[in-house]
Task: inverse folding
């Protein structure tokens, strides 16, 4: 041990498998930075590398990130629809459903109407409300 570092004895041997392993390690490092920076673009990673903020190697090959591809798919716009009804009764809006048979999220089944201090159910239904259980 010298200067609080471990010393290793060995020699550098360049073999096909070792070169491949080194290339894969560089590519893995690039992917990790891409993921850790929130799927940042290649240009953004290069810029951070130029500024010395991250240690990043050049991207090798044309490796495609599937989450990035899926994330970009929502950017396709829907075609604008300009179809308008031009004649009488070609487009009719009506409320034929009536009162809801089940409570809404807030618990209201009756229409909202001013009740002037009375019991809302009595005012809405016009009937006396039983408060007993």
Result:
């Amino acid at each position: 041990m010298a200067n609080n570092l471990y010393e290793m004895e060995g020699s550098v041997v360049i073999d096909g498998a070792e070169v491949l392993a080194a290339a894969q390690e560089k590519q893995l490092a690039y992917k990790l930075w891409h993921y850790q920076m929130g799927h940042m673009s290649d240009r953004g990673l290069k810029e951070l590398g130029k500024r010395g903020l991250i240690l990043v190697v050049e991207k090798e090959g044309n490796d495609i990130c599937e989450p990035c591809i899926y994330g970009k798919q929502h950017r396709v716009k829907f075609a604008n629809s300009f179809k308008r009804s031009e004649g009488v009764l070609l487009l009719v809006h009506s409320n034929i459903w009536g009162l809801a048979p089940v409570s809404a999220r807030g618990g209201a089944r009756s229409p909202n109407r001013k009740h002037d201090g009375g019991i809302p159910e009595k005012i809405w239904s016009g009937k006396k409300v039983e408060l007993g259980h």
